[in-house]
């Protein structure tokens, strides 16, 4: 199974960070490609994108100031298939990426992604009071997986907070 290439650059507003690619994403080489994943609909409905994008257009979001990576690069059926060693190595690699590219916001797509990376046991939705990487604001958003039981309206409202955060000041 192929890994899915990161879409990273300097000067990004947001880097979206997932657990790892789905098997479907690994097959097609694009982030959030599983048709049951709501990521692209959530971005559009929250105002983060001006139109509904397709997973095949994930690289185009660099033009909007958005990048993509994962804490673990290996595609799996689910996050439960990720090993402790993969998380350990992934935390180091992710920290290096955030220190190198310095996005304004690291958006963790799921509380579990954030707690795995940060080592914290709990997190609230939204902007976190402390940053893991100095100079990068941490934002925790719900997973976009179709398996998430949270109502879509609630998920979209949290992503709308992210949109408002990055829209509120000239440097964001």
TrEMBL record:
It holds the Pfam family UDG. The keyword tRNA-binding does not apply. Keywords: DNA damage, DNA repair, Glycosidase, Hydrolase. It comes from Paenibacillus lactis. GO terms for molecular function: hydrolase activity, acting on glycosyl bonds. The keyword tRNA-binding does not apply. This is TDG/mug DNA glycosylase family protein. Its EC number is 3.2.2.-. Gene3D superfamilies: Uracil-DNA glycosylase-like domain. PANTHER family: G/T AND G/U MISMATCH-SPECIFIC DNA GLYCOSYLASE, G_T MISMATCH-SPECIFIC THYMINE DNA GLYCOSYLASE. InterPro entries: MUG/TDG, Uracil-DNA_glycosylase-like, Uracil-DNA_glycosylase-like_sf. The lineage of its organism: Bacteria, Bacillati, Bacillota, Bacilli, Bacillales. Residues 9-152 form the Uracil-DNA glycosylase-like domain.
């Amino acid at each position: 199974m192929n890994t899915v290439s990161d879409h990273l650059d300097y000067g990004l507003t947001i880097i979206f960070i997932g657990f790892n690619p789905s098997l479907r994403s690994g097959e097609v080489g694009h982030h959030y490609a599983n048709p049951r994943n709501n990521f692209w609909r959530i971005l559009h409905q929250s105002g983060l994108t001006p139109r509904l994008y397709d997973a095949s257009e994930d690289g185009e979001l660099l033009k909007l100031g958005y990048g993509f990576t994962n804490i673990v690069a290996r595609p799996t059926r689910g996050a439960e298939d990720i090993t402790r060693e993969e998380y350990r190595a992934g935390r180091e690699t992710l920290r290096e990426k955030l220190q190198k590219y310095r996005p304004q916001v690291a958006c963790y797509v799921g509380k579990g992604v954030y707690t795995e990376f940060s080592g914290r046991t709990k997190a609230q939705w939204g902007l976190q009071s402390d940053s893991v990487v100095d100079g990068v604001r941490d934002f925790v958003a719900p997973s976009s997986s179709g398996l998430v039981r949270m109502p879509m309206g609630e998920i979209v409202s949290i992503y709308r907070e992210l949109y408002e955060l990055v829209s509120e000041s000239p440097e964001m």
